[in-house]
Amino acid sequence: MANTLLMPKATAVWLVDNTALSFEQIAQFCGLHPLEVKAIADGESAQGIKGMDPIMTGQLTRDEIARAEKDANHRLKLSDPKVRVPESKRKGPRYTPLSKRQDRPNAILWLVRNHPELKDAQIARLVGTTKSTIDQIRDRKHWNSANLQPMDPVTLGLATQIDLDMEVNRASRGREQAQPAGDTLLPAALTERLVPAPEKPKDEDAELDASAVFAKLSALKSKDKEADDEE
């Protein structure tokens, strides 16, 4: 447990307004720079911040403040608080409850089958396991391989969907997209070259030859005349 000052800047505002402590004493107690404390006193900083009384919160005593006001070399000391602020825990392997540890191999099998892009370190991070266990399950050398059933770690409560999606996206980043199997549509640029251009409408007037038409009519008339003469 760590004994730390709550809301240091708000505490500094209160000490500047309500005590005769030096800037150095307030800065040392609140973890600020003396120039920052001076800016608070001049109204150039911490505007809008309401001062917090460290006596009311039990972090300072009136006697301690009075002692520091009389001796400029005295360093303010935090009182032993009734409530301690816990230190941030060091990030380590994910803790898995004992009741869910038996489901962990099933979750590992599911991840290995459904997300082969995940690295062993990512699987270990998701379900709180070791690389050797992952290798045993992947190579079917696990002592209980015959009874393992792939199960979603999110459904089992071993990982959150957000964590799983994040690891999958991280593993997929930079990988080439798989080419679709089977028949696919050709690019538009290619199909334009393959499809023949539509025929232009013929200009009927241009195709008609007047002399040829009259020649045919003359030939028909001559045939009719010959037929009349024979009769």
Automatic annotation (TrEMBL):
Protein name: Cytoplasmic protein
Highest rank taxon of the organism: Bacteria
InterPro entries: TrcR
Pfam families hit by this protein: TrcR
